[in-house]
Amino acid sequence: MKGYHGRPEATAEAIRNGWFRTGDLARRDKDGFYYIVDRAKDLIIRGGFNVYPREIEEVLVTHPAVSLAAVVGVPHERHGEEIKAFVILDRGAEARPDELIAWGREQMAAYKYPRIVEIVQSLPMTSTGKILKRELT
After folding, report:
1. Following DSSP, what letter does each residue of 15-27 receive, concatenated?
2. Is 41 a residue whose pLDDT tops 70?
3. Roughly how many angstroms between the first and final C-alpha of the chain, as a whole number?
């Protein structure tokens, strides 16, 4: 890629030292294989700890009542950001936000579980089905 047409600032931000920075965050296992784990823009920094929303979402959807989850960072005075989850429940399932918070506390590290859970009927999505997290607060 040579750059973004007519957008030199975006090009300078995306291409550094000849490398295109996608914004993807990856990890490498002991065998040298790489795995995409999240997006840099989605990273939540809570009290100095890096929290990857995708990891929290993957845990939340293992709860028997949860159909879909989206996790975002919201401003917090002491921690910088707090973890908030928007959750869609399975049809006919019941769960209260406080129950999901308590369950998350049991399933995740102390700095990772969401302190705020909002149960919603739907999430804003693109035409291809990607959740529009920038519209969640």
Report:
1. EETTEE---EEEE
2. no
3. 34
